[in-house]
Design a protein that fits this description.
Layout (H helix, E strand, L loop, with lengths): L1 H23 L5 E6 L1 E2 L3 E3 L5 E2 L1 H13 L3 E6 L1 H9 L5 E5 L3 H4 L2 E3 L4 E9 L16 E5 L3 H9 L4 E5 L2 H9 L5 E5 L10 H6 L6 E13 L3 H12 L3 H12 L8 E6 L7 E2 L5 E2 L1 H13 L3 E6 L1 H9 L5 E5 L10 E16 L14 E3 L6 H7 L5 E3 L3 H9 L5 E5 H10 L6 E17 L4 H12 L3 H11 L20 H10 L1 E7 L1 E2 L3 E3 L5 E2 L1 H13 L2 E7 L2 H9 L5 E5 L3 H4 L3 E2 L4 E2 L2 E6 L15 E5 L4 H8 L4 E5 L2 H9 L5 E5 H9 L6 E5 L7 E6 L7 H8 L4 H11 L8 H12 L6 H33 L9 H18 L3 E9 L1 H8 L1 H17 L6 E6 L2 E6 L5 H14 L4 E3 L2 E3 L2 E9 L6 H17 L4 E4 L1
Parallel strand pairs: 1-5, 1-6, 9-10, 9-11, 13-16, 13-17, 19-20, 19-21, 23-27, 23-28, 32-33, 32-34, 42-43
Antiparallel strand pairs: 2-3, 3-4, 6-12, 7-12, 8-11, 8-12, 14-15, 17-22, 18-21, 18-22, 24-25, 25-26, 28-36, 29-36, 30-36, 31-34, 31-35, 37-39, 37-42, 38-39, 40-41
């Protein structure tokens, strides 16, 4: 009996032990499926780890709920299938749509996101999704974008890609000019300059504001409740910091606030209009365009702006001279600029610094170069001043012989205060100060976002801003470097010496870029670039000539040659070749018959026969931008021009510099050229066979020396704009004939006749050129300046008004209901109406102003040197008043009204594109308000 009791006790103990172990055993982890490439919300990083805003929120949720979770990453459509098939219990976060609500139950949203259509810059005029019906929309298969877009416009056509990465590859290669994506779609902004440059955030159209919502299979209410309770328990401060880390800003806050100091022109200050302006401001505004994040500026002095960032009143400092000697306790997010400071002497010049011995010079007490200055001038006493005004006054009063300060700041100050001639710069004493964007160290996400945004700006874009603000080329850091001999390391020199002969291919007949001259040698712009490579790198280059572009590219891709110039960098070519940095602007131009209407964008080519050189990467891009084109492939430039001249093609597209050179030769008097605005900012690269890839960074060092001035020198060497008249031939004949003038008077008469014919021929050719120039720059119907001439006059206006610090106005005028007039009365009546309106607009302005036909029923008026906004609105009022009465055309009363957008330089913008875009937007606001009115910014 005791044995039985013992056995029962042992069995009970075993049962209780097993039950206890079972109760203590860990529960099965929660499988969370996610998309693998929806940056920055849910994606797999370079180490193969799940990353993103939603991933970090879920990890914190797991800590709060004491739940083990496993992330499973899939292509987007596969992630939905995983949840639907029960292979995962929950989806990390998806958009909530009616179709998905049938299959899944949704928790409370955990993140907000904007979804957009990103448009190629050539489509910036598109204002609504309905206008995109002719284009294929690139989407990731299985995303909610397609369903949402189909609800908005059922006629849209889609091109589906398996992943975001393949979508962006298709975008870069020109397969699609419109694609759908989340806000912040670029995974690596520093390597995606092509996408961000060609698809600016300013041109995007919002699909909808959506939310990421966790989802489970239907009927799992217990899991839904657990998910909701866990996210409700998250610390709001943690959510805010996580959003700042991944998005660069908090979703409940509109953009970033930038602290800016005052009184430091040309770097940063408030303009006469009370708005921030300067070098740093323009850099930040370009950053805003690249990232799509709005920015606002709050001004203050040096100390106050730093404190604003420390206390959280501002997100970042616009630019501060942070150094080991001048620390703020903030983190350096980005090196923005390098300021060069020099010695300015009052009414004297130095030949040697020893001449300053015993004399005093002025300096600001906060100058970051004080230690270096004392070391450079140990026997020169320093006197401290609290401002530039005080230092200049001290020099004039004889307290100091000069002062050390920022070269650009001082030059700007002296020019404005008419003191430039009194001071002389000493060039051999210079101090460089690095300027950094600062942010709080507890905000690493913002710091990374700032760095990504600035790294997405090209050196050329920085150089363009610098050119605008920095008067002295010696102050430039982006394109002002002297062309010194490049210093190579022993390893680099050994590599080059080991290469031996390096073959560089070129085209025999592609003047002036590259061609074979009369001596049979490599000539043209690319030959000068090749000589620069030879001189700087001691490369042994051998030129190899090719008959056509297709053969040249084939030889490069097969390694028969190592290098080729003027190669466009495309996604397809990047798989087979390496590329240098861009080194030469290569805008595309278009040649058409003289009597044809001038074409300035690809949209105007719908349905036309377009000749293009076979092998150009442009072919795929053209078909994506305008699918209705009829392509005519030709072997070279000469064949393309012949095709247009002989009527086998309507237009021919090639590089502007090549077309200009061919047309100037006079062989095609019936053809004219125009610039394609859609493709005006293309650039050439040197294509490199992959075996020579280590040569690329060395080539880039050389190409970096080709600044705007060097480009102009090379260009002028190979492109001549003089009129050739073959005058010498007739003069030679004249000399021979004069020898027998005494004996043969009949010959004299012949000579006079030849001379007369020659003069007549020259006169006719000059008149023809003048007529060609007029036709190229004026609208054929209204005789008003066309868009090309407007661009030129607008560029001149920007330069002159910037120099004079004066204002000009732009009026963007659109005829209301013009299409209905064309449809009702016919195109002849519509054309006559355009002529009448053009005449009326011309009468409404001064002779120094410009009225241009922008295209279709749109006109642009440039009012030079307006005193104020009232002067511009007075012109707009006069136009509206003069159009209040109907026109009588062929016995018919035609009533027309206009909508006008009015902008002022520099208040509403300081670039031609910015002003035109703003005026266009204001015009549409006026039209939306019913027309017959104008709108101001």
């Amino acid at each position: 009996m005791k044995l039985v009791i013992h056995l029962i006790v042992i069995l009970c103990c075993c049962f209780w032990s097993m039950a206890g172990q079972a109760s203590n055993a860990p529960s099965m982890p929660l499988v969370v499926v996610m998309g693998e490439d929806s940056f920055p919300y849910q994606y797999v990083d370079s180490d193969g780890e799940p990353s993103g805003l939603l991933v970090d929120l879920w990890k914190e949720w797991a800590k709060q709920t004491h739940t083990d979770i496993i992330f499973v990453a899939r292509h987007w459509h596969e992630s939905l299938e995983q949840l639907q098939q029960g292979k995962a219990q929950v989806h990390l976060g998806m958009g909530k749509t009616p179709e998905r609500e049938v299959i899944f139950d949704f928790a409370t949203p955990i993140a907000d996101v904007g979804t957009y259509l990103y448009l190629h810059k050539s489509l910036q005029g598109k204002k609504s999704i309905n206008e995109l019906v002719p284009y294929q929309i690139g989407v990731v298969a299985g995303s909610s974008h397609e369903a949402e877009l189909h609800r908005i416009e059922p006629k849209l056509v889609f091109k589906r890609y398996e992943s975001r990465e393949k979508l962006l590859t298709g975008v870069v290669s020109g397969e699609t000019v419109v694609f759908a994506g989340l806000e912040g779609y670029l995974k690596d902004p520093s390597s995606s300059q092509d996408v961000s440059a060609n698809f600016p955030t300013t041109a995007r159209l919002q699909i909808k504001a959506m939310q990421f919502v966790p989802a489970v299979l239907k009927g799992n209410q217990a899991l839904l409740d657990k998910i909701n309770q866990g996210f409700m328990a998250l610390d709001p401060h943690f959510i805010q910091q996580t959003e700042r880390r991944w998005l660069g800003y908090h979703s409940q806050k509109n953009g970033l606030v930038i602290a800016m100091l005052l009184g430091a022109e040309p770097f940063v200050d408030l303009g006469v209009d009370g708005l921030p302006h300067g070098l740093y401001v323009d850099m930040w505004q370009l950053w805003s365009e690249k990232t799509g994040i709005d920015i606002d500026f709050i001004p203050g002095d040096m100390n106050a702006t730093v404190n604003d960032v420390r206390q959280g009143l501002a997100d970042a400092h616009i630019g501060y001279p942070e150094s080991d000697d001048l620390k703020t306790g903030l983190s350096r997010a980005w090196k923005l600029y390098t300021v060069k400071s020099r010695l300015f002497l009052y009414q004297q010049q130095l030949t040697d610094l020893h001449q300053l011995k015993g004399k005093r010079i002025g300096v600001l007490p906060t100058a970051p170069y004080l230690v270096s200055l004392r070391k450079s001038l140990p026997e020169v006493p320093l006197r401290y001043y609290d401002s530039m005004d005080a230092m200049v006054a001290g020099a004039r009063a004889g307290e100091i012989v000069g002062f050390v300060a920022s070269g650009a700041w001082t030059s700007h100050y002296l020019l404005l205060n008419k003191g430039w001639s009194e001071f002389h710069q000493y060039p051999d004493l210079e101090f460089s100060t690095d300027i950094y964007v600062l942010a709080r160290s507890d905000d690493p996400g913002l710091i990374q976002r700032i760095a990504n945004g600035f790294s997405n700006i090209s050196t050329r874009e920085f150089a363009n801003i610098e050119q605008k603000w920095m008067l002295n080329p010696k102050d430039h850091i982006f394109n002002g470097a002297a062309h010194n001999q490049i210093i190579l390391t022993p390893e680099e020199r050994a590599y080059i010496e080991g290469l031996g002969e390096v073959k560089m291919g070129y085209l025999k007949q592609w003047s002036p870029m590259e061609f074979t001259d009369e001596k049979g040698e490599f000539a043209g712009i690319n030959s000068d670039v090749a000589k620069l490579l030879q001189e700087q790198l001691q490369l042994k280059l051998t030129a190899v000539a090719f008959d056509d572009w297709h053969g040249l590219m084939q030889a490069l891709q097969q390694g028969e040659i190592a290098l080729a110039g003027s190669v466009a960098q495309t996604a397809e070519r990047q798989q087979r070749l390496a590329f240098s940095d861009a080194y030469w602007p290569s805008p595309w131009g278009l040649v058409s018959q003289l009597e044809q209407v001038s074409v300035f964008n690809i949209a105007q080519l719908a349905g036309q026969r377009v000749a293009v050189v076979e092998g150009y990467h442009l072919v795929a891009q053209l078909m994506a931008l305008q699918p209705s084109l009829k392509l005519v492939l030709v072997p070279d430039t000469q064949a393309g021009l012949d095709a247009v001249a002989n009527g086998h093609a309507d237009v021919f597209i090639d590089k502007v510099v090549t077309l200009a050179s061919e047309l100037k030769a006079g062989q095609y008097p019936s053809l004219k050229m125009s610039l394609l605005s859609d493709l005006a900012d293309q650039h050439s690269h040197i294509g490199v066979y992959p075996q020579f890839k280590p040569l690329v960074p060395l080539i880039n060092k050389v190409l970096a020396q080709i600044d705007a001035r060097r480009q102009q020198q090379i260009y002028s060497h190979w492109v001549s704009f003089s009129v050739e008249s073959d005058n010498s031939q007739y003069i030679q004949w004249l000399r021979y004939l004069l020898l027998g003038v005494l004996a043969l008077s009949v010959v004299m008469v012949a000579v006079l006749a030849v001379n007369r014919r020659l003069n007549l021929e020259i006169t006719r050719r000059l008149a023809a050129e003048k007529r060609l120039l007029y036709v190229a720059n004026h609208d054929a119907l209204t005789q008003l300046p066309n868009r090309a001439l407007l661009d030129d006059r607008l560029s001149q206006a920007l330069l002159s008004h910037q120099r004079e610090q004066s204002h000009f106005a732009l009026l963007f005028v659109d005829l209301d209901g013009f299409k209905q007039i064309n449809d009702h009365y016919g195109h002849p009546t519509g054309d006559e109406l355009l002529v009448r309106v053009a005449h009326l607009l011309t009468k409404a302005v001064r002779g120094s102003d410009t009225v241009a036909r922008f295209g279709g029923d749109e006109f642009v008026i440039l009012l030079n040197r307006v005193q104020d906004l009232d002067a511009a609105t007075q012109v707009a009022d006069n136009i509206l008043q003069s159009l209040s009465s109907p026109f009588t055309i062929e016995g018919v009363n035609v009533d027309i009204a206009v909508s006008i957008g009015v902008v002022i330089y520099p208040r509403d913008g300081d670039t031609a594109i910015g002003l035109l875009k703003k005026a266009d937007q204001l015009m549409y606001q006026a039209k939306s308000a019913g027309g017959r009115c104008y709108r101001l910014a």
